[in-house]
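Suppose a colleague, Dr. K., hands you the sequence of a protein chain of 378 amino acids and asks what its three-dimensional shape might be. Before reaching for any lab equipment, you can write down a predicted structure in token form. Begin with the sequence itself:
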Amino acid sequence: MKRLFLCLMAMTSVLALSAQSIYDFKVKDDVGQEVSLSDYKGKVLLIVNTATRCGFTPQYKELEALYEKYAKEGFEILDFPCNQFGEQAPGTIQEIHQFCTANFNINFPQFDKIEVNGDNAHLLYVWLKSQKGFGGFDVTDERGKMMDGMLRRQDAEYDKKSDIKWNFTKFLVSRDGQVVKRYEPTDKMSDVEADVQMEVNPVLSNIMARRSVRKYLDKPVEHEKLEVVVRAGINAPSGGNRQPWIVRVVEDQKLIAEVTEIFKQENTEQVNRDKNFKNMFRNAPNLICVCTPANGGGELDAGLLGENIMLAAQSMGLGTCCLGGPVRWLVANEKAKFFIDRLDIPADYKLNYIIAIGYPDEQPAAKPRDASKVKYIK
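The predicted structure, expressed as tokens, is then:
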């Protein structure tokens, strides 16, 4: 019987981990009715495990303020009471809801009580934890130091597990159902709000969603879409409106294949290491080649052009990657001269960088950014 239970638990975990987005899950609302989270497609979500008798319970007030501020912009808070931490969420979901409305006047939806850790953890939380593990408490903060000390006394290696550590852990989910960030209960709500702003604003969320893509579907980008992203590029600002760039868009698949053959002959070891190798431009089906004056200048303006192109591509469901290595190889290799010649670059210009573009065949995770490099001079 125990073996059967373990097998069922293993199968359940596999099903949760195979989910593609949050929309693959169902939960029960505060009256026991099953709700598909696909009902929230297109919304920015903040998912929180809560408790009514916790030192962090006053966060309900901050959560409601956040909800009221951004609900009209497509923001939802999904509240899941949980009694696993110090038994600080006693009572029925109806009693919990009554307490929250009476004391904090909450208007965001509350769902039935669940478990977030252990064998009975809800599949939603199995998946959430697999997407964003525990990132640690800020021990320079008094509350973070307190939580770290308390949990480390219970388990010296608690921080190496992805489990939910306490009440009011939060997960931010983007409009496409992907987990963007995890917050511990000691994290500042102002930081949570800043990230919510980035997600609900379509321009900012597009910036935050853009990643360098290095795997593409074997499907060329339609000419009309290439025209749109390039138009977005050439509408970038430039000093004195000089527009010092020259742009060449490669749609000729044969040209890409021919220059790749030369690359493969000269870089056999590198090519063999990549079992998915198709071409020397990260396997992208199309290229956008950006050129600047040969005698220097225009690099800053060209950079602004490229960023416009990549963000426009992101907004249209296309992936991009800015490449410098292939440019150096092309320029230095006499055998690849035919490729440069085909681009028809004026003599007083040089190839600066290439943007690989295509339909993405991967969803790279965001890499951390070092906010400490920013200093505000007041």
